[in-house]
Design goal:
Layout (H helix, E strand, L loop, with lengths): L7 E5 L4 H12 L3 E6 L3 H9 L3 E4 L5 H15 L4 E4 L14 H26 L5 E6 L12 H21 L4 E8 L5 H14 L3 H9 L11 H12 L10 E4 L7
Parallel strand pairs: 1-2, 1-4, 2-3, 4-5, 5-6, 6-7
Bound molecules: nicotinamide-adenine-dinucleotide (NAD).
Length: 255
Amino acid sequence: MTPQDSRAALVTGGTSGIGFAIARRLQSDGLRVAVLDLDRPPAREVAREHDLTFIGADLSRRADCRRAVDETVSALGGLDVLVNNAGFQHIDPIPDFPEDTWDTMLHVMLTAPFLLSKYAWGYLTRSGQGRIVNVASIHGHVASPFKSAYISAKHGLIGFTRTAALEAGEVGLTVNAICPGYVRTPLVEGQIADQARTRGLSPAEVEQKVMLEPAAIKRLLEPEDVAALASYVVSPAAWGMTGAVLDLDLGWTAR
Ligand SMILES: NC(=O)c1ccc[n+]([C@@H]2O[C@H](COP(=O)([O-])OP(=O)(O)OC[C@H]3O[C@@H](n4cnc5c(N)ncnc54)[C@H](O)[C@@H]3O)[C@@H](O)[C@H]2O)c1
């Protein structure tokens, strides 16, 4: 990517973890970048500090998805790259899983990527170099117990990615999914702390014996590792890659 790249990008969940790393990487690739996140002072502050346009929105609300696209287009003058990254985790067995939490998770991680793609479609197809990047998960391929909503949403997001890719091929828009294994972010730090408490293990033991047990490489990914892959997918060089489901999973699914 050259600094001359003048495309405009929106990264959801862009003030923390993987989303923040992707936003910063696309910014250093030369794109104009807006970050969408829940409208809270620390999120606004992160955006301000790093010269990223902030779009405050709650992706569990349909009206916010529409407004977020409109605000991004008016702030950046267009929208060529959409990174659907926002998400969160809730762990409970199915009989105890709160119905409202299920609805919110499916909305944020599956319905919002559809709505943002739908509302932004006309802009994304304008440059002939449009990109949708969906941050799914290795849990879009495999399951783990007690994560029913998360896993259902991520499996669905892969299906949406493939369908959108087929519809977008003729209009110069690529649609791909990235499936990371465990990445060191606030979301995962929280899971490590929870599991350490419930299993009576140290955080280091949870990391090695629980989270990295199925992995060939016993080391957590960093957000920048995912951002480097996203940077390639967004770049003009990746024009021929669409409908791809890209695993960055430390060898988890190799067995
Ligand atoms: N960390 C990992 O190991 C890992 C692995 C695979 C996939 N992922 C996926 O990567 C994405 C980013 O995760 P992360 O680990 O960086 O988490 P994170 O908690 O650091 O960041 C998630 C961001 O999403 C935002 N968000 C949550 N609900 C929202 C809503 N209703 N509206 C708007 N924004 C909302 C949060 O405010 C936060 O900024 C998620 O989709 C997650 O499922 C993470």
